[in-house]
Amino acid sequence: MTSHLIVRGKKIHVEIFGQNHLPAVLFLHGGPGESCYEFVYYQARRLSKELKVIAIDQRGVLRSERIGDDESFGMMDIIEDCEDIRLQLGIKEWAIIGHSFGGYLALVYTKYYPQSVSKVVFENPTFDFEWTARNLLKCAGKLFLSKGDKKHFHECEEYANGFYRTEELFDHYLRLGEILGDEKEKIYSPNQVATDDSVYTDEEWEAFSERTDVHLRKLREEGRMFESIIPYLSELHVPSLLLVGEYDPVTCDKHINEYNQVKKGKIVEFKGCGHMLHSEEPDRYREVVTDFIKER
Question: AB hydrolase-1 domain spans which residues (predicted)?
Fold first, then answer.
């Protein structure tokens, strides 16, 4: 079922799959601003055989209502939206799957609404944007070097190893990523996986993208996303699962070392995969996630 819910005054795009009696799970996409489209394309049918899957485009993203230029918006609005959706759907508690920046959101949501969460799956998450941005810059540098572009390789190295604020590192990575163009995707995964987006016209996708730009800009301006939430890991009270791709650049070794201290935490590595595990190995992903969420 695909619909819009009015959530705290805004239309939020919500997709629901699976029977009501099945364990409920909310998917939080990354980006910021990437949408749940790809996850639904690869996992909705697979997961909904044993789980009730709820996937959303976060406030202001893609198919959700646009955030006005004069409206206030910050990270906690996404968290409050999730809780409002849970209440509207009459779900007592649900598991959370957070991909990339969605993993950051999943950990924050669990901290503020612990009674609402049964389990958490972190798929190649970031909990510290500085660590992630530095590692992404190193990976971008290697890609530039492989193309013979020593100028931008040295620029990436300077930012990756220099004394810069997290906001600066993030902005420089976005700028250098634009220089790479389509080649940027090679940073995230060695596997190129196609998603059929022909259900929408090019004009519709362009309009959706404009909404997402506002979402990202306002989060960037608020700045809360640049705060490390590594300390939240020690407060994680529910069983959790960290899924990491062998070649993923977002969840660097520092993240994994910190997660290793989490009580009730498990780690599963996907060999040969990068950042998009749910699309790179969709059948194994379904199996691992379903087994974990249904495990007593």
Answer: 23-282
Q: Is the pLDDT of residue 1 over 70?
A: no
Residue 206: per-residue pLDDT: 84
Are 276 and 30 in contact by the 8 Å Cβ rule? The answer is no
Strands across the sheet containing 10-17:
2-7, 10-17, 52-57, 24-28, 94-99, 117-123, 240-245, 265-270
Query: 145: Cβ–Cβ under 8 A, 6 or more apart, which residues?
Result: 153
Q: Per the confidence metrics, is the pTM higher than 0.85?
A: yes
In the chain, how many domains are there? 2
Q: Give the model confidence (pLDDT) of 126-139 as tens digits.
A: 999 999 999 999 99
Judged by average pLDDT, the poorest of 50-54, 208-212, 273-277 is 208-212
User: Domain range for residue 222?
Assistant: 2-128+197-294
In a domain, 192, yes or no: no
Q: Which residue has the tokens 């190995």?
A: 281
Cβ atoms of 18 and 10 closer than 8 Å: no
- Of the given ranges (9-18, 101-110, 199-208, 222-231), which has the lowest mean pLDDT? 199-208
Residue at 283 is within a domain: yes
Torsion of CA 260, 262, 265, 268, to 10 degrees: -20
> Distance between CA 5 and CA 11 in Å, rounded?
6
